[in-house]
Amino acid sequence: MSELSKLARQALLQPQEAMLEREKRKNSLYIGIPKEISFQENRVPLTPLSVALLIENGHEVVLESGAGESANFLDHHYSEQGALIVQNKEEVYKADIIIKIAQPTLAEIDMMRNGQVLLSSQQPSLMHLDHLQALMKKKITALSYEYLRDEGNTLTVVRAMSEIVGATSVLIAAEYLSNVFDGKGLMLGGITGVPPTEMVILGAGTVGEFAARTAIALGAQVKVFDSSVYRLRRLQNNVGSRVFTSVIQPIVLRKAVIGCDVVIGAIRATNGRSPCIIGEDTVAKMKPNSVLIDVSIDQGGCFETSEITNHEKPVFRKYDVIHYCVPNIASRVARTATYALTNIFTPILLDIGEMGGIMNLIWAKPGVRNAIYLYQGHLTNKDIANKFNLTPKDLDLLVVSNH
């Protein structure tokens, strides 16, 4: 009897193993990473070690030659981990899943196949109708990093980039205060017997918090302004040391800005546009060679004198105040930013494979569901729909009808 049961068990196991092998092949993802063509975008979504992890899990990764170069990840770093390196961008766009940083251009959308999955950045304020229509026509399922939330319901990519931008903006201020860039010749912070430099931070969100943390660590005297007492209290608790905080009162704010050495504007937009809270007359009265960094410039900026600059020519002077208004500060530290992003994207890609497709992942994870703005060509994001006066479809209903 025992011989018979052994044989029966073997007979049962064989097809199961074959089925598992087929299942693995069926859930294998084909992931494409194109080289970024948008101006001064130095980040890449996945590091070579993340690619190794994906390949170990049975997925294929194709990478356009030079995609990681600006973040100092070279082609051979990826090929050594099993990625296929191609010279031709069109080859990358044959993949089932395209993962990139910047939103795709029309030329890139033209290369895409019907029914592909696209993971990229997509701010509603920067979306163009012809791009949206081209994606819809190709029945693309698209995810926007700006809406992606984690298990704690935090906007995970936004938060990671905000942490980098907050800390980096203080280091930029330190550069422009020094003699190297014809600044005041001050050291950011202070030493014994010399009064510390004064910094005003507008906005007590993640950028404001990490800017305050870095500035305090360097020894600067920090004042934080925000319209929300809740956000100010949260910043105070998170930073762990007593910081001067104030709600935005024009007279107090004006006095602080005129007297400080550095002002960092990090007020987040509520409806796609940052409020402009520092007028030209206030900037005109600031001390000569003071540094003004407008982190909110990608959403219109919070200083009346701000104008968009870039990494090649990052500053201009107005009223003898040094203005730094580069929208993509995280690209200054592209390698750190890439490590932060790969930690977020790799688990998502692994989950798509594990769960047998993006539809099942959307069904299982509300944070990912929140980031989908196109589902098989149907527009599901209310903000984008409002911008173009379109009617969004209900994503839950679309998923249920396809489930």
Automatic annotation (TrEMBL):
GO biological process: L-alanine catabolic process
Protein keywords: Oxidoreductase
SUPFAM superfamilies according to UniProt: Formate/glycerate dehydrogenase catalytic domain-like, NAD(P)-binding Rossmann-fold domains
Ranges of residues in domain Alanine dehydrogenase/pyridine nucleotide transhydrogenase N-terminal: 32-165
EC class: oxidoreductase
E.C. no: 1.4.1.1
Listed GO MF terms: alanine dehydrogenase activity
Keyword Oxidoreductase part of the UniProt annotation: yes
Record's protein name: alanine dehydrogenase
